[in-house]
Design a protein that fits this description.
Number of helices: 13
Shape: globular
Largest sheet: 12 strands, mixed
Structural class: alpha/beta
Strand content: 15-25%
CATH superfamily of the domain at 413-502: ANL, C-terminal domain
Distance between the termini: 38 Å
CATH class of the domain at 413-502: Alpha Beta
Number of strands: 21
Radius of gyration: 23 Å
CATH topology of the domain at 413-502: GMP Synthetase, Chain A, domain 3
Helix content: 25-40%
């Protein structure tokens, strides 16, 4: 939930456009958390002013009202676990549609969009589509479309006074400002709770610990502390807290405060991405004691080595949640799913995935292509056929529709010694087997290969692991590989690590 409501004017870096708020407003704490009483508001203030607190870059709230909480309770009860069919619009007593059939909520979304969303109202006037159009008849929506004119994609009937803004990471281009609804964000908390429960672990409110901590590790990013009112709790129990922190030493008044803050607040659930998780593991190896119930990885590829490293360090499940800021969560991989290289599409959310070829036509089941998502979870931003820029194959698995071989960005092709092009998804499989935590494989225009790899253990163990990975790539492509052994996650850079690249 890395979001802001535009509260504090001082942002981490004015040069970074992703931190410019939609419309800065000054809110009181009571307005930020309208369902929270004075005692719990005082706890938020105390957390802001904690002796080990980082330099908070923002002030934010969940904006959840008592009515919102009732709606969330009903939604949670109706949708159940992460893979309930109820969210697909199936009334009680009716059979679920075939996985190859569009769920019934899509037709309702198309009708509503043509009535309430400027882009589709305009399309209807011009005769290009209508409220009864089939999904496949609608044009694709791109990230560029949203960046150029977000307003034309927003539902005109939803009051805008409750927007909480979120930003995409900007890892593949300029960051995108996304209007989010408070209930949408709170639903993500309930989803994570349900997915953790699927592993056999219960996430129950414990006010003595931070309920959720979102962990980043980059030069500048929004950080804040907030009340976690979306997490269910017994009546009378204090509201648990949450925070978004930056592990970069410059984000803290004293670099030693980082370890002290983590140890004292001991978050129940850690939500992060590959590089910050690696940094947390490094801090754990240095003596920072953490006892998470679960770790949630989002936005970046999770290697088998990193999953195992988390298990070795803390003995907890890792939930690999795939989604975009624009779409929200799309699919999830538990340990058994990861063994099949699969992410199971979340049937508890109104999300539908197509796999298309470069010309925009559907590919056959099991063939790779670009994921295109239709989603109706954010009242402000209903999306029809949104291009994710991520590539995978779609198949029917033991837990439902699943994305196989998910790769962020367009796949990179590597050329072997015989001149054959080999896909990066195959390279990922080769490197996964070597046990690396993270890597970057590059091929230049002459065909030379360079592997930068990070592994767990002492210097010799890390060196041996990267050497083994390099040998595996060399056998695969029948070319020599130059290796570089990395000693820390920071050496891979900030944000989302680019795993594959080619100059050819």
């Amino acid at each position: 939930m890395p979001t802001s409501d535009g509260g504090q004017a001082g942002v981490p870096d004015a040069l970074l456009g992703e931190y410019a708020p939609f419309d800065a407003v000054a809110l009181s704490d009571a307005e930020r958390w309208p369902s929270v009483g004075p005692d719990d508001l005082a706890r938020v203030v105390a957390a802001r002013d904690h002796r080990f607190a980082p330099r908070w870059g923002h002030e934010t709230g969940d904006r959840l009202t008592a009515q919102d909480h009732r709606a969330l309770a009903n939604r949670h009860r109706d949708r159940g676990s992460g893979h309930s069919d109820l969210a697909n619009g199936i009334p009680d007593g009716e059979d679920a549609p075939s996985p190859d059939v569009e769920p019934p909520w899509i037709a309702h979304l198309i009708e509503r969009a043509h009535a309430n969303v400027t882009r589709y109202r305009r399309s209807a006037r011009e005769g290009r589509s209508s409220a009864t159009s089939m999904l496949s008849e609608l044009p694709l929506v791109t990230r560029g479309d949203l960046m150029a004119d977000m307003a034309s994609h927003v539902d005109l009937t939803i009051p805008l006074d409750r927007i909480i803004e979120g930003t995409s990471s900007g890892a593949s281009g300029a960051a995108l400002m996304v209007p989010l609804h408070p209930v949408t964000l709170a639903s993500d908390v309930l989803l994570i709770r349900a997915l953790i429960a699927e592993t056999g672990t219960l996430w129950e409110a414990d006010p003595s610990r931070f309920g959720l901590t979102l962990v980043t590790n980059q030069r500048a990013v929004f950080t804040y502390v907030s009340a976690l009112t979306a997490l269910p709790r017994p009546e009378g129990l204090a509201v648990p807290l949450m925070a978004r922190i930056n592990l970069d030493e410059n984000a803290w008044r004293n670099p030693r405060d980082r370890a002290a803050w983590l140890a004292e607040h001991d978050p129940q659930v850690i939500s992060s991405a590959t590089l910050p998780i690696l940094r947390l593991l490094e801090l754990a190896a240095e003596g920072v004691e953490l006892h998470p119930l679960a770790v949630v990885n989002g936005a970046t590829h999770l290697t088998a080595g990193l999953r195992q490293a988390v298990k070795d360090a803390w003995g907890v499940p890792v939930i690999d949640l795939y989604g975009l800021r624009e779409t929200g969560p799309i699919a999830v991989a538990h340990a058994a799913d990861a063994e099949r290289n699969a992410h199971v599409i979340l049937s508890s959310r109104r999300v539908y995935v197509e796999i298309l070829d470069p010309e925009g036509s559907p590919v056959a089941l099991g063939e790779r292509g670009e994921g295109v998502v239709t989603v109706d979870e954010n009242p402000y931003l209903p999306l029809l056929r949104y291009r994710t820029g991520d590539y995978a194959a779609l198949r029917h698995g033991p837990r439902g529709r699943e994305l196989v071989g998910l790769e962020g960005r367009e796949p990179v092709a590597f050329q072997d010694a015989a001149g054959r092009l080999r896909p990066s998804v195959d390279a990922a499989q080769v490197l996964q087997a070597s046990g690396l935590l993270a890597w970057h494989l590059h091929q230049d225009s002459s065909g030379d290969l360079y592997l930068r790899g990070l592994a767990v253990g002492d210097a010799k163990t890390r060196s041996d692991a990267v050497a083994t990975a390099g040998e595996a790539i060399s056998r695969w492509l029948e070319r020599p590989v130059q290796i570089e052994v990395l000693s820390a996650a920071t050496e891979l850079g900030e944000g989302k690590p680019r795993r594959f690249s080619s100059s050819g």
